[in-house]
Design brief:
Blueprint: H1 2-20, E1 42-43, E2 48-49, E3 87-88, H2 91-98, H3 101-108, E4 114-124, E5 129-136, E6 141-148, E7 152-161, E8 174-175, E9 182-185, E10 192-193, E11 200-211, E12 213-221
Antiparallel strand pairs: 1-2, 3-4, 4-12, 5-11, 6-9, 6-10, 6-12, 7-8, 7-11
Length: 222
């Protein structure tokens, strides 16, 4: 009888150990569940923490090349000063001033020089201009003669390339240097010579820098 009790007690003890003893953690199966932390925090395996003492990664500044501004003038080269457009004159009205050109051309242009195209004629306020493109030929010599009414105290004529460099004002290749109501470019014997082996175009700019009134200019070729 005593032996039976010992066996029962041993079974009870083993039952108690299997029910109460050993590892009290639940078994984990499969992959661990990812833990989401608030922005700026990290999971250290147990809890979410904010970084302490962390320095932001150094960034290397990227140098940017400054935008180069286009020059507004060509150093050492005169550029055209064309202003607002003057009012062109019809052929009948233009005769009032174009008739003043022939006497000047008789001495200013080379003997036998002929007019090229129509005259440039307009009614100018101070600072206004008129432009006209003229065809020039190899080996030819050119003179531009201008005249205005007495109310014009300074008439200017400039000869510039018909195609300018983008972003830059047109460079003046020839201009009058006189003061008054008349202007001459390429006065003989120093006429403007077209040196290229093929023909091309130039632009004649007629301006009134002082005074106002009607004026005209004519290109002559020899």
């Amino acid at each position: 009888m005593a032996g039976t009790k010992l066996v029962l007690c041993g079974l009870v003890a083993l039952s108690a150990l299997s029910g109460c003893g050993g590892d009290d953690k639940q078994a984990v199966t499969g992959q661990p569940t990812a833990t989401q932390c608030a922005p700026g925090q990290y999971f250290d395996g147990r809890i979410c923490q904010a970084p302490t003492g962390a320095q932001p990664a150094a960034t290397t500044p990227v140098a940017t090349a400054p935008t180069a501004a286009l020059p507004t003038a060509i150093p050492g080269v005169a550029t055209t000063t064309a202003g607002p457009t003057a009012t062109p004159l019809d052929p009948a009205t233009a005769q009032v001033v174009t008739s003043l050109i022939a006497p000047l051309a008789a001495t200013a242009a080379a003997p036998g020089a002929k007019p090229v195209g129509a005259a440039i004629a307009g009614n100018f306020a101070q600072g206004q201009s008129l432009e006209q493109t003229v065809q020039m030929n190899p080996g030819k010599c050119y003179t531009i003669v201008g005249a205005g009414s007495p109310t014009i105290t300074n008439l200017d004529i400039q000869l510039v390339p018909s195609i300018a460099i983008p972003g830059l004002p047109a460079a003046v290749v020839a201009a009058d240097s006189s003061q008054g109501a008349t202007a001459i470019v390429g006065q003989q014997p120093n006429c403007y010579k077209w040196a290229l082996p093929m023909g091309g175009t130039m632009k004649v700019v007629v301006s009134v820098s002082a005074g106002q009134g009607m004026a005209a200019a004519q290109v002559f070729e020899k």
